[in-house]
Amino acid sequence: MASQEQQALYIKAVNDIAEVPSEAWDACANPGGDIPDNPFLYHAFFSALEKSGSAVPARGWQPFHLTMETGEGELLGVVPMYLKGHSRGEYVFDGSWADALERAGGKYYPKLQASVPFTPATGRRLLARPGPNEEAIEAQLAAGCVEVAKQLEVSSLHFTFLTEPQWSRLGELGLLKRMDRQFHWHNKGYASFDEFLGDLSSKKRKNIRRERRDAFANDIEIEWVTGSELTEHHWDAFYQFYTDTGSRKWGVPYLTRQFFSLVGESIPNNILLILCRRAGQYIAGAINFIGSDALYGRNWGCVEDHPFLHFEACYYQAIDFAIARGLKRVEAGAQGGHKLSRGYLPEATYSAHWIQDAGFRRAVDAYLKDERNYVQEDIDYIDTRAPFRKDMDLASVRPFKRRRLG
């Protein structure tokens, strides 16, 4: 049998996730072994986004997934990618770039976006099937994405919420490197929430205990719903909460009602609904996705306001679940400095960018160098205000952390 170096390899773009067999996609996206399972990379997740009308051309998300195959049709790698007519639903903000280019007489949209729509969660974007040529396949996938961008004559190509190794490799291939930050909770192997609290300063410990007590003050009950327990009744309730928050934040919620039914049917064991009930009725809830080593907090909403219920449902219950499941961390989504006092620490996030126009590229490159330094300084400063006891080394709190400035 010919080696991959001797075989002819074929790269193409597909406009519907259904054109790629789910088993072949998942063998590249979530192959197991040393690569942690990421729920957002499953074929089923992208399929739910597309079938439900959430990530479709009518909403400015034209699927343009890149695939690499051998001559015999074996899938060696994929890149989830979209042709975008706007920058909504990305959480890596480039609106100022669009304004600058258009003021200079250029056209920023359409652009290409290698990402998981509406999902600010770190993961691989160059999804190469594991093997001895894995990094070479990643490089060829990246080159293929750039070639597609050139052929389409778009302004730019963006890989967002990358893993740090892929961010570094894309930088070595000439893409511009960007950093931002989120807040994540790290599990040191805690046996209980109280054991975690024992690592915090006395003041923070007392504040969290008070918040948790007050969150339940109005006879509120909280339940975890996952796997086969998920029903359309749960999704109806949660969607009401989701649309209430979405309409207040960005006008039109990104995800349709059908998305939740589809994803709940296809990957129920990767979903955790945290639902809050009062007087027999659901009044609030948060959706999380479960990976092999992390819990990913995504959306929250409510129809009744109660003190500290948001913190309880989104942060403290997530920690409880992660401890119970032995998960290494909780990624609590974008933004939110208020998470720091609740035990969530700043973590760098990474994106890489290819820009067509040489002059515009130089300007963005200079901006990103300054921004990376600022982000790193911000992370280092926030670390000094961490809620943990003064005698604790943050390296012990981040047992799985690795970060470098590049």
**Strand-residue fraction?**
15-25%
Give the terminus-to-terminus CA distance. 40 Å
Q: CATH H level of the largest domain: which superfamily? A: Gcn5-related N-acetyltransferase (GNAT)
Helix content: 25-40%
Order of helices and strands: EHHEEEEHEEHEHEHHEHHEEEHEEHH
For the biggest β-sheet, the strand order reads: 2-5-6-8-15-9-14-13-12-11-10
The main β sheet shows up as: 11 strands, mixed
**CATH topology (fold) name of the largest domain:** Aminopeptidase
Strand and helix map with partners:
Layout: E1 9-14, H1 22-29, H2 43-51, E2 61-63, E3 65-70, E4 75-79, E5 81-84, H3 95-103, E6 111-114, E7 127-128, H4 134-152, E8 156-162, H5 164-172, E9 176-186, H6 193-197, H7 202-215, E10 220-226, H8 232-249, H9 257-266, E11 271-278, E12 281-290, E13 294-302, H10 309-325, E14 329-331, E15 345-355, H11 358-383, H12 394-397
Parallel strand pairs: 6-8, 13-14
Antiparallel strand pairs: 1-3, 2-5, 3-4, 4-7, 5-6, 8-15, 9-14, 9-15, 10-11, 11-12, 12-13
Helix pairs in contact: 2-9, 7-10
